[in-house]
């Protein structure tokens, strides 16, 4: 009886076992080869990426409407062009909402039905604009 803890060592000592493993792997590869193009195409279709909006960093990085922190995150429930129509937005761009405010409230103040002045942007090179009351 052979007592070996490593299977590779056992196979090297047993030529029949090594041959069986090599033959099995070769047969498996030959069996799967005709199906691979279909499997790859199916995987690619399942991994399709949808773009919600497209633009440059200046357009997509905006101050959070709740706290003013510059962010690339957005509210899941509303479009920026409908909430803040006096600014230029990418097609389909949602209202900017930072992670902290999203995690704390779950939506921007517009969606929560709150009215307040949008805060000045943090770390912005532009001077803070005048306070705009949020539309409910």
| Spatial arrangement of strands, main beta sheet | 1-2
Shape, per Cα inertia axes: elongated
Oligomeric state: single chain
User: How much of the polypeptide forms β-strand, as a percent range?
Assistant: 5-15%
Q: In angstroms, what separates the terminal alpha carbons?
A: 81 Å
Helical run tally: 6
H/E topology pattern:
HHHHEEEHEH
- Proportion of residues in helical segments: 25-40%
Report the C-alpha radius of gyration, rounded.
29 Å
- In the predicted model, the low-confidence regions spanning at least 5 consecutive residues are 1-6, 125-136
pLDDT averaged residue by residue: 73
How many domains make up the 3D coordinates? 2
Largest sheet: 2 strands, antiparallel
Q: Care to count the β-strands? A: 4
Structural class: alpha+beta
What does this structure look like?
The chain has 136 residues and is α+β, with helices and mostly antiparallel strands. The chain is built from 6 helices and 4 strands. The chain folds into 2 domains: 7-46; 50-136, no CATH class. It has a two-stranded antiparallel ribbon with strand order 1-2. A hairpin with a 6-residue loop joins strand 1 and strand 2. It is elongated, with a radius of gyration of 29 Å. It starts with 6 loop residues before the first helix and ends in a 31-residue tail after the last helix.
């Amino acid at each position: 009886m052979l007592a070996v803890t490593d299977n590779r060592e056992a196979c090297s000592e047993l030529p029949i076992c090594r041959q069986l493993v090599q033959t099995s792997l070769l047969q498996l590869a030959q069996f799967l080869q005709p199906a691979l193009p279909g499997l790859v195409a199916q995987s690619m279709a399942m991994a399709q990426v949808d773009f919600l909006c497209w633009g440059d960093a200046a357009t997509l990085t905006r101050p959070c409407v709740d706290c003013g922190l510059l962010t690339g995150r957005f509210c899941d429930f509303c479009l920026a062009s409908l909430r803040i129509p006096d600014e230029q937005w990418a097609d389909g761009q949602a209202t900017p909402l930072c992670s902290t405010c999203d995690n704390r409230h779950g939506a921007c103040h517009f969606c929560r039905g709150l009215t307040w002045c949008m805060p000045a942007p943090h770390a912005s090179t532009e001077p803070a604009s005048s306070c705009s009351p949020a539309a409910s």
